[in-house]
Amino acid sequence: MKISRKDVEQVALLSRLEISDQEAERFTQQLNAILEYMDVLNKVDTEGIEPTAHVLPLKNVLREDRVQPSLDRRLALSNAPEEEEGYFKVPKILEG
């Protein structure tokens, strides 16, 4: 399948993009080069190859979830401009 200059101009129009004549020609050539390469890839024998999302196996590396000491509340609030009942007090940003 080949992309024509008319196709590129139509997509630009639908995308509300202004492209020059040189850009339309360049995009036409680039898109056709991509499609030609896809034809090459389609000729590769992939029989028996499992579909994969990544070349290497991925595994989440998670640490054990355990309780450990954290910053003391009074120390955390010591530099707060305002605090109320042990929490940071910030200006209201939503209209009620």
UniProtKB/TrEMBL annotation:
Record carries keyword Cell inner membrane: no
Domain of life: Bacteria
Enzyme Commission code: 6.3.5.-
Keyword annotations from UniProtKB, A to Z: ATP-binding, Ligase, Nucleotide-binding, Protein biosynthesis, Transferase
Known catalytic reactions: L-glutamyl-tRNA(Gln) + L-glutamine + ATP + H2O = L-glutaminyl-tRNA(Gln) + L-glutamate + ADP + phosphate + H(+); L-aspartyl-tRNA(Asn) + L-glutamine + ATP + H2O = L-asparaginyl-tRNA(Asn) + L-glutamate + ADP + phosphate + 2 H(+)
UniProt cross-references to InterPro entries, sorted A to Z: Asp/Glu-ADT_sf_sub_c, GatC
GO biological process: glutaminyl-tRNAGln biosynthesis via transamidation; regulation of translational fidelity; translation
One Pfam family here: GatC
MF terms in GO: asparaginyl-tRNA synthase (glutamine-hydrolyzing) activity; ATP binding; glutaminyl-tRNA synthase (glutamine-hydrolyzing) activity; transferase activity
Stated role: Allows the formation of correctly charged Asn-tRNA(Asn) or Gln-tRNA(Gln) through the transamidation of misacylated Asp-tRNA(Asn) or Glu-tRNA(Gln) in organisms which lack either or both of asparaginyl-tRNA or glutaminyl-tRNA synthetases. The reaction takes place in the presence of glutamine and ATP through an activated phospho-Asp-tRNA(Asn) or phospho-Glu-tRNA(Gln).
Similarity comment text for this entry: Belongs to the GatC family.
Record text on subunit structure and interactions: Heterotrimer of A, B and C subunits.
Full protein name: Aspartyl/glutamyl-tRNA(Asn/Gln) amidotransferase subunit C
Top-level taxonomy: Bacteria, Bacillati, Bacillota, Negativicutes, Selenomonadales
